[in-house]
Amino acid sequence: MSDQNSPEVVIDVQQVFKSFKQVKAVRGIDLQVYQGQFLALLGPNGAGKTTLVEMIEGIQKPDSGRIFIHGKSWKGNEESLHRLIGISLQETRFIDKLTVAETLRLFASFYQLPARRIEEIIELAGLQEKRKSYVVNLSGGQRQRLALGIALLNQPKILLLDEPTTGLDPTARRDIWQILLNLHESRQTSLILTTHYMEEAEQLCDFIVLIDKGKIISQGTLNQLLAQDKEVKNIEFSLEGNLSNFNISQIQKDIQMDWDEKSGKGILYIKSIENQLPNFISTLRANNISLKNIECRRPTLNDLFLSLTGRELHDA
After folding, report:
1. What does pTM read for this prediction?
2. Distance between CA 56 and CA 214 in Å, rounded?
């Protein structure tokens, strides 16, 4: 018997597979998204994020497995499900010689929405000063805010955003973030956000799914994910001295480490600061190498991804 107070499952993905010729894009993914939840699919390019979202959107069909949106499959329910979902892709093509207001009016007509909804979206997207501007004259960030506004026109129960801030400068990216953070406060809309930006997933989403090579490799809240590596301390350091004659392998026998010889900077991954750090410093002294800087920092999602796959998230 289900708990009446527990949130409703709005998206239910069950053992979904999808291949394109020899490429296994999605390999047996199970995923549930709950009412009001903001979920990030975080992974490198080619991980299968977009393919998974396109199947949830109904654009692609799974080779096997099932997908339910509010308890309904896509087959035979296309019209009703389309009205529940808002979509914004990496790049949205508009009619260049329409203004912002005219573009919104066009899309609003598909849903028979009143004029006041257009005004609400213009304000929500922060496009008041651009309402009469042609779309062709908008910046990249303004175009993405317009695309997000269009996705929100019909007040969707589910919002699907595929890499919405890729290619944007930091200011434009944070403008998009603020719109989504404001939306999250209402808890009326559920979100799936695909991204390869760790900070984006951390800032916007309350549940994060790490995906690589078509499979989920870990999932949970940010704290739950980072707790997986809680025994390991990440210590960033930089060295100075005669580094050209310094044999880094003397330390690597005892401590896991990433080392960049060119910059003289590295990261130690150690479980016992008391036991392992003194040995590290003693080895440096024996080789007339000095610590220029040392800092213990909290683990990141990139550290977790590295420990699970052997590759860094942003380089994978």
Report:
1. 0.82
2. 15
